[in-house]
């Protein structure tokens, strides 16, 4: 069992408690397989195994001939596979002041309990990673091409926090080397997955080379607190089906079990263990109680998280917008450039994915 003590997992199964106080777990307990409701820990089974028998399984898909991602919130044993947990749907907080207080308490408690031994922090200068940087005594790292948004934002935020920053300068040679390694570790070759993983993977390599074995990340905040444009614009954005901002928030939270294995597997392959305090159950529980205006206020996404962050951060950091890492680091742009230089033109269907597969 990874991520939680087996006794706690048994209690969560018995009580059917989806958020028992962990940052995720998966593995075998009492002869059955189990994965937490948000799929924060990867778990794979050998595809094609009859549902009434225990399959060969692993946390690493490379251990299996034909790996299949095990469903989040499910149990599988000799009685078959079944869902045991679903994401709670609690009533929203009564008012925004209460929401800010509860989110602040949940976030600060989750971050402050992180052990800093062997820890570094992936720092982009945005509110999510800055909450870790401000409250943890750990070195800060950012990855990006020269002139990239993330490097500039991280430098200015580090100055405001009076912290030293380590810059991992990305290059075309580093991308070409890392792409097949990421694909092998994650089993993913689609362009978006590789683009997202690239800056994380190259940051993790540098962190591991510098002697650290754990990497703190602000992952989950965008999904939980309304950080995406498609959530802000619900129901008018065709990328979501929900007809409210809160409904769109839940819709993107439900994508985490598919997304998180990509990052966890890439980071472990690079030599570090991810540490994600903003994905702790107490933070998830608080975030699920936010209504539309607590998530997005006008054009301000992650409104409650930003207000809560003012207890830890200067306003200039708590309120700033940032780009997704693959764009802020310029990794996506430069991978596209490499694909075109190799003859994979944009007029081709999925030209970057074709280029990635050519490197394997």
UniProtKB/TrEMBL annotation:
Signal peptide positions on this chain: none
One Pfam entry name: Asn_synthase
Keyword entries, A-Z: ATP-binding, Nucleotide-binding
InterPro entries assigned to the protein according to its UniProt record, in alphabetical order: Asn_synthase (IPR001962), Asn_Synthetase (IPR050795), Rossmann-like_a/b/a_fold (IPR014729)
Region entry Disordered, spans: 1-24
Asparagine synthetase domain residues: 103-235, 246-342
Coiled coil, from the record: none
CDD domains: Asn_synthase_B_C
Protein name: Asparagine synthase-related protein
